[in-house]
Amino acid sequence: MEKSEIEEQKEEEDQIVNPWEVTAKDGGKIDYDKLIDKFGCQRLEESLISRVERLTSRPPHVFLRRGVFFAHRDFNEILDAYERGKKFYLYTGRGPSSEALHLGHLIPFMFTKYLQDAFKVPLVIQLTDDEKCMWKNLSVEESQRLARENAKDIIACGFDITKTFIFSDFDYVGGAFYKNMVKVAKCVTFNKVVGIFGFTAEDHIGKISFPPVQAVPSFPSSFPHLFPGKDDLRCLIPCAIDQDPYFRMTRDVAPRIGYQKPALIESSFFPALQGETGKMSASDPNSAIYVTDSAKVIKNKVNKYAFSGGQESIEKHRKYGANLEVDIPIKYLGFFLEDDAELEHMQKEYAAGRMLTGEVKKRLIEVLTEIVERHCRARAAVTDEMVDAFMAIRPLPNMFD
Ligand code: TRP
Fold first, then answer.
1. Which residues, 6+ apart, have CB-to-CB distance to 77 below 8 Å?
2. What is the pLDDT of residues 86-99, one digit of tens each?
3. Same-domain check for residues 300 and 348
């Protein structure tokens, strides 16, 4: 029997990364170098990170120093313009598919908060309640409810209300935003979205028509209350690299409708507790640390599930040391332990077998508990009025201050 082109492609493809599926080759790790080649984005070089440090007069975020954000498109152009005194705006988003967020969900928002503070620029946050309604088979009402709940977690990350507009697609799509969606949609054939996203003829047309919704926040004219007369303002999108297909499409279309291409800064994926080959799965609560986990639950999850690169006996561990390549506690500390010197010390001692897995896990439990408790306190302080205030369609007169 003849195979379809897509099937052949799937067999050839060693790894699959798109907004709906992240699968490494044969249960291995995601090969990020290959992904950069395949997607055609650029590696985030050391020289760009030093430039960020110079331009913002503050140390680069841990996620930059440790390579969590590792790829980009035209970020250098954003910095060139910034150096000449031209500001930009930030755009990121979340598909509200679940009530409880895990730490992986917070990463783009923590990083976006740093970018907003460091560059002093406005930010738009899209809650794609429509997307999740269509993909996750949630009702319209439930998707909208989750969007508001997730907005509280996002606000808890510390965004500046004088510079931040949060919107839900169900509430905001229309007017100038919708006009831009139609302009984009006219430039993208069915064949094109099949090529980019892998849609099939069996997918409902809601899915096929969605990509323009995520595309157009990249254009300042989609926000006439924020950026009137600023059609040449550039957009920078911090996101995980699985969102790249949306913005490849956006960048392809932009010049054809007279708009600037958005720039991107892209992160790798936050690994599951069970190891980098595993996926954090919504159906397995033990694969991730949730922002709602108590100190006791965090301790138990780390001790019981965090995949260790240590040896199985103390004697062997002292002799051979830990394999840091596969060790989850060290990986997680790489994301969340701010102190470079302490991390380096732990890596060295652990790899040499002088430090034991238990000690590394103990430090990780402290670090994670502090982050989660801080987040919980901040989220508890977010009121419905604050959500309304962030989501109000309003000008932000001080957004570049
Ligand atoms: N599709 C994304 C998700 O499912 C949500 C999203 C919308 C987004 N716009 C974005 C993510 C821009 C990053 C950048 O989570």
1. 234, 263
2. 999 999 999 998 98
3. yes
